[in-house]
Structures are given as structure tokens and as C-alpha cells.
Amino acid sequence: MLKQFTLAEIADFLGAKYQGENIAVTGLNTLEEATGTELSFLANPKYIKQIETTNAGAVILHENHAQAVKNAIISDNPYFAFARCMGLFAEKEGFFEGVSEFASIHPSAKIGEHCTIYPFAVIGANVEIGDNCTLFSGVYIGEHCHIGDNCTLTPNCVLMSRTSLGDNCYLQPGAVLGGEGFGFVRTDFGIQKIPQIGHVEIGDNVEIGANAAIDRAALSKTFVNSGTCIDNLVQIGHNVQIGKECLIISQVGIAGSTKIGDRCTFAGQAGIAGHLKIQDNVTVGPQGGVVKDIAKNSVVSGTPSMEYNTYMRHSILQPKIPDLFKRVNALEKQIEKLEQEINTKK
Amino acid sequence: MLKQFTLAEIADFLGAKYQGENIAVTGLNTLEEATGTELSFLANPKYIKQIETTNAGAVILHENHAQAVKNAIISDNPYFAFARCMGLFAEKEGFFEGVSEFASIHPSAKIGEHCTIYPFAVIGANVEIGDNCTLFSGVYIGEHCHIGDNCTLTPNCVLMSRTSLGDNCYLQPGAVLGGEGFGFVRTDFGIQKIPQIGHVEIGDNVEIGANAAIDRAALSKTFVNSGTCIDNLVQIGHNVQIGKECLIISQVGIAGSTKIGDRCTFAGQAGIAGHLKIQDNVTVGPQGGVVKDIAKNSVVSGTPSMEYNTYMRHSILQPKIPDLFKRVNALEKQIEKLEQEINTKK
Amino acid sequence: MLKQFTLAEIADFLGAKYQGENIAVTGLNTLEEATGTELSFLANPKYIKQIETTNAGAVILHENHAQAVKNAIISDNPYFAFARCMGLFAEKEGFFEGVSEFASIHPSAKIGEHCTIYPFAVIGANVEIGDNCTLFSGVYIGEHCHIGDNCTLTPNCVLMSRTSLGDNCYLQPGAVLGGEGFGFVRTDFGIQKIPQIGHVEIGDNVEIGANAAIDRAALSKTFVNSGTCIDNLVQIGHNVQIGKECLIISQVGIAGSTKIGDRCTFAGQAGIAGHLKIQDNVTVGPQGGVVKDIAKNSVVSGTPSMEYNTYMRHSILQPKIPDLFKRVNALEKQIEKLEQEINTKK
């Protein structure tokens, strides 16, 4: 945290007012952990008690709580104001500028203006890279790849041949795009490999997590549309198509040829089988296993996935299933006894 | 897609006949997506309606459907004929040839003929590499590793010391072989680390996925036999032994010392506990959790895994379990009432 | 396995006695696989029959079994004695010494004594590295990182900016620390990115697995305390706090802001939701899904996780659930019939 702003500068940046002393703010933190030179925020009124004990130098809060602290920035939406401050304090990752003489760049590659290429990055034949891109060390860009403007590929990211990225994409370390799809078919005469001759296409404003893998298509393309954010260690199979503004959380796996609509959210470790259609605005719970098509706006959970309310009822009852077996055992004995009694009376 | 063949050349390659115009074919695609210079195929008769609307320049199909299109290649098995064409159109990955002066190769390493070593690859002491191998940038080969002929290690693959690969192996980017097995034992006096002094041995014709991890053995070796294909982000623990021609789909985890037979298929995200014996031809469903030995030819699914038919019945009934609780509640009340009525009559 | 010791030297190292011939021991192995120059061990009496057929040159065993073999080392705890021998035979990974002229080291970086820096490692601005550290090829250390003494970062590990490691840490290949946390919030006006301005802090004696990912915090820090061991392909979300001496097995995912106590064990593929408190000494079973706080010393399993004994009973009964439905169907018919009979008699 090397940056520093005055409280007045921050208020000005937010288009908001401040009260109290115009202190120098050296960082941002939670009410619980903030020190005397840090700015914090109060968004959820249930944390209001922390206001009394916080060491924060100043707090962003709603005017309803303005008298609770001395130094404050007043905001209608303290959470978003604080999130904007996080952008203010964020440091651009990296320490190198220009194009390193220790990068390996094929003569046929075209690189835009104001790009940063770290030592030991490799750029292949016929690659095209837009303006203002940053390629960290260990990045490999295969032949015929196309990268838009303002993209960042952090260390050890790999784009295999013919992968394309739109503008403003950010790849966390170790992400692999365009590896060969798992095209193996078991036949009577052994495993047949189906060569994967498609590619990967990524839209604009896409973020891809550390050590995630997006396979290239068997034919045509694997596609991730603009605004979608993919977390660490996610697997996207060949020919998958993902819509706009989806959130794919860590360790999710999506099998081949599945089509996913816009604004879907898949929670951590969920698995989506192949050749399915998941429509817009679908939410899949953590560790959920989706094995059939899902209609738009659905919220599903469990394995195999079911409608959310059913899943929640099932979840609560699941630990009581052993007891249910006992109850059915008892019922069977009771009914046998009753039958005997009735037969005796006949 | 830079290659191009005439329809006659492709028919010749397949040992098949063609009909219609001898067009230039620039690529391969599905009936739905193919353009006028692309070749497609009809394997499953249920897609026959797509023949009417496809823009494909030509189609591989069975002679029963030959009159449905003008330009065609006639085949008894259109799917496999098409798969062979994919091999025809596949481009060899990469753009570099020879041994880069910017690779770091230990003087004691022995490298076969016709190998390609990219810039920034590292080859350690006493390594032996066969003929016709390709090591991309960022690859690290630890000391005493042995690599057969015709192997490809794509960018940023790592072989730690003493790992051996057979012939014709293909490693997707970021795969890690020979990392230390997780040899930690919790004892009364803290966690004890058990040094892992074994290694990893891989057979011939093995493919390993992006960012997959195969740990070296505590003693002796972790072993993957010939023809087995391992997908992205798979974890293989120390001392695991995997047979021939297995398909291990993405994100599967296999815990230490488990032995797996030949021709097993583990679907995505399945987990196999340690110290088990999984016999030949076993299939484990997606997200399945195997905690006991499995007999040959079994198909299992679920967590803990059960026989497939049982799993399917369970899957269908699972969402009805909350209703089953209600039904048992009702039965208990009914039977209590009946008991009272009978007692009253006594 | 290049090292070699006499049986007497090994006995001396263990502070134990040996019997038989003072053979040269070239390696360690199981009773089943050991050859005539290898040392094995008998810890569990159920393997005593293997003593009769083993080819091992010598065996570490309890004096109760001393007469079963000719060459032996006598130990009260053969397993731990053998584990110590594994340390004796373990080779230090790597083949390079000194600081490579082909590493890229920022002039402002401070590097301690006796460090090994491989070719193609990158060390950023204002980095501080202690003594006796080893950085393999492809390692990237972002600006303002701090690394203690005796740390090993194997090939292609990445520390993004401001990450700190304590002493004696070991990172397996491809581990990524300090990647940006998944700070995306879906709002009415699209996905908002919350910049992640915190960092990652790792204690002493921590091991981190191949291709694992530990995200940096939104604010403050993501923290892994001393002695904790993290396996391959594990995901640790932003602001997670993990206590001392935990074992986090392969493919586990821990979502953001969850706090974990000391000495917890999470088995493979378990998932822990965000914002939870898991107290000391908690064990979570394989593939378990934890969605609520867990009290200390608990053992839980299943999804959603339940108390271990309940889970085991549920696991056994789960395949019988389809049958339970049939039994309830039958009861409903029986009771209907009984009701009719009783009503008829009225």
C-alpha cells in the first residue's frame, strides 16, 4: 500500500462530502482491522457497534450514522463508494515497462503500441496483439493468435495456436487457453484420438482465473462471450459456449459442447455435463451436478441438480433418513401386529 | 485453417468414392455451421433434416443417403471417416524448429535427433531425450529424467527429477509430473513429513491434460500405463497405478496407492479414495465418490458410489424424499388411529 | 537412487542395532518390491507373511520379529525409523547452483546468501529474499514480495505482488499465490469488479501443492499459518484464514473470508463455503460440502456436511432408499385395506 490521499481528495473523487479532520489516508480496511490512517466503511447497519471500537482514521457511511464518528465521508451507498476507493488505491500489477530484449518474439508477429512484454515471454508466428497489452514472463502465445487492446496476461499464461482474445481481458497466472480438447473415443479396436482442429474465442472484458483451462474445439470454436468472469482452476471443455456476464466460480467443470446463456452463475465445484443447454440467468449451487437442460431463471442445486427449494428441503431431511428407515421398520411391525389382531377377531 | 484439399484428394485419402463437383475443401465443420468450402458429415440419421438446410460444400455420408446432397463422399462409417479427415486438416502445434540458443540445456543431457527445443526450456543434468521430441518454452525437465521418442511437452510443463515418459506422449500446457507426493502424517508431536523418494513412470502413447498433476511415489513409482488419456486438472496421488487405455476425465482426483485396471473410464470430478483396487473396465460416473474396491466391468455412480441402476433409481427418487417423510408422518397417524379404534373395540 | 549406505551406517543414523551381514543398501522399498540391495520395513504385523517371500536385503522390524530375517535393523517403531531413512536417501531436487546470469533480477531486489536462482526466473522490484532459498526456472516474484530463509519455489511458481512467505516454505510446481481474488458483484447495472488490494501472507514451514491457487485478499490479507500443508490443485479464496498445522488435501476449495482453526484436515475435493468459521481440529470427509460453521473437534462428511456417524449410517442406507419407497407404497396399501376392513365391521 504505497499510495496516499487526503480525505478531501477521496471525497472529491467520489463526488461526496467529508466531515472532521482532512487526514492523510494510507489505505483501506474493515472496521475491525483498520488503523488510524486507514479509511473504512459502514454499509450494513448490523456492524454499527464496530463503529464504537474501530481504530479507523475515517469511515464512509450513510448520513443517518454521520454523528457516530468524527472523520467521515457521507454516501448514499457506502459499499459502492468504498469499492470505488479500492480502485483508487489499487496498484497496477508489475514492475517492468517496454519490450524486453529477453522476450522471444517471432518476426512475423504484429504488436500494437504501448505494450509491455516481460523477459522470457514467447510470441509465435503471425500473432497479432493490440495496443496497451501486458504480457508477463513465461507467457506463451502460439501461432495465429489474436489479442485485442488493453489485455493483461500474467505470468505463465498460455494461449495455444489460433486462440483469440477480445479487448480488456485479464488472465490470472497459469491460465491455459486452446489446449487440445479431450477428443478420445473408446472403440472395439482401442481408443481413437479425434484431432481437435477448432480454436478458442474469448470476447471483451473477460477475466480468467489462475490455472484455469479452456480447451479448443474439435471443430469450429469454444466460445466465452463478453463480460464473463471465470475463477481459478475452472475447466471448460471443447466446443462449450458461454454467454455474457456469467460468473463461473472456482473449480467448476463444464463438459464439452454445452451451451450456456447470459448472466448465469455457477457456484464453486459445480459440474455441468456435456451437450446440455443452460438458458439465461440460471444459478447452480456449489458442488451441484447438472445432467439435463435447465430453463431460464432457474435456481438449482444438488447432484443430480434439482429445483432449489426441493434441494433445501432435501438437505434438511437428509440426516434424518436413517431415522426414517427406523420409523418404516416400526410401522411394518405395527401393521403386521394389527393385521394379526384383526384376523384373530374374524 | 490454412490447409486445403480437393474432394477427390480427401476421398482418395479415405479410400472412398466421391460424387458431384471436385470442390476445393478448406476446412471441416458441422452440418449446422459449415460453409460452402467446408466438408461436413452425416453419421446419425436423426440429423438428416440438417442435410436440407446445410451450406456445406460437401458431406461424408452413407450411400443410403447419397441422393440427399450433390457433393458427397460415400462411407460405411461417416463418423470415423470424418475423424480421419480431422487428422488430415490438423496443424502441428508450434512455429519453431531446431534447438534454441536461448534454451538452458545441461551439458550432461543427451538429446536425440530431430528434436525441437524452444527458447526458455530448461533441461537438467543426466536427462535423456529420444528422437523427434518437441519441448516448448517454459518446460522444465529435472535431473535424471528419461523421455522416449516422439514426445511433445507443450509450454510450461514440468517433469521433476527421475520422471520417465515412454514414446509418443503428449503433455498439455502446465502439466506437472513428479511433484512430491503429499506425505504428511499427523502425529502426537505435530505433522511429520515423509520424504518422497520414488518417481513417476509413464508408458507409451499417454496424453496428459493442462495443469494436471501426477505426484511422485513415496517409494518405487507412480505409474500410468500405455494408451491412457488424462484430462485437464486431474490429480493423481503418489504410488497410484493406472492400467492401459483408461480415460480419466477432467478434475478427477485419485488418492494415493490406488491401483486401477485397464480400460477404466472415470467421468469428470469423480474422486477415488486411496489404497483401493479398481479392476478392469470399470466406469465411474461424474462426481462419483469411490471408497471401496470395485470389481471388473462394473458401472458405478454417486457418493459413495453404488451400482449404476441403483444410482439411477435413487437419483429419480431423491427429489421425492421430502414427500416420503410426509407420507410416513401420515402413516404413523393413521396407524395410531387404527390402534386406538381396535383397542376401543376390545 | 544414487546414494548408498551400509546397514551399519543406517543403524547408527537411527541410533539402533543391526543384525546379520553389513550389506550395502542402495535404496528403500516395500517388502513386496524390494530387491537384494534394498532396505524394507515391517510395521504392521499383518504383513508378516511377506517377510517369508521378500527379496529385501534387510528389514527394519521390531525385536519380536527379529528371528524372521537374517539382515535387520531392530526398532521399537519400524515405520518412523523407515520414514527417517527416507530422509536419508532423499536427493535434494535440482541440478543448478548459484545465481544464473539468465535470470531476470530487478536491481532493487535484495537476495540473501547462498541462494540458487535458475535461468529464466524473474524477480521484481523491491523484493526481499532470505538466505538459502532456491528459485527454479519460470518462477515469477512480483514487486514488494518478501520471502524468508530456506524457501524452495519449484518451476513456474508465481508470487504476485506483495505476497510474503515465512521461512522453510516449499512450493510445488505451478503454484500461484497472490492472484486477484474473485471480486465480482452482480448488480442491476451489470457485473461490478471490486479491485483486490490486499495480499497473501504465508507462515513458516508451509508446503503448497502443484498448480494450487491462493488468492490475494480484497482488503488486508489471505493468511495461511505455520506448518500447514496444502496439496495439489487446491483453491484458497480471498481473505481466507487458515490456522496452524492443517492438512488440506488435493482439489479442496475454500471460498472467500472463511476462517479455519488449527490442526484441521480437509479430505480431497471437499468444498467449504465462504464466510464460515471452522474451529480447531475439525475433519471434513472427501467431497464433503460445508455450508455452516463447524465446532471444534468435529468430524463431518457429506453434502451438506453432517456429523460423521450420521453420514456413515446415511451412506449405508442410501442405496436402499428406492426400496424404502416400495415399502412405504406397500404400507399405504396395507393400511388402506385395514381401514376398510375395520370400517366394514363397524
UniProtKB/TrEMBL annotation, chains A, B, C:
Q: Which CDD domains does UniProt cross-reference here?
A: LbH_LpxD (cd03352)
Could you tell me the EC number(s) of this protein? 2.3.1.191
The UniProt keyword set, sorted, is: Acyltransferase, Lipid A biosynthesis, Lipid biosynthesis, Lipid metabolism, Repeat, Transferase
Which enzyme class?
transferase
Domain Mannose-1-phosphate guanyltransferase C-terminal intervals: 104-178
Function according to Swiss-Prot or TrEMBL = Catalyzes the N-acylation of UDP-3-O-acylglucosamine using 3-hydroxyacyl-ACP as the acyl donor. Is involved in the biosynthesis of lipid A, a phosphorylated glycolipid that anchors the lipopolysaccharide to the outer membrane of the cell.
Subunit-level organization? Homotrimer.
- What is the protein name given in its UniProt record? UDP-3-O-acylglucosamine N-acyltransferase
* Name of the coding gene: lpxD
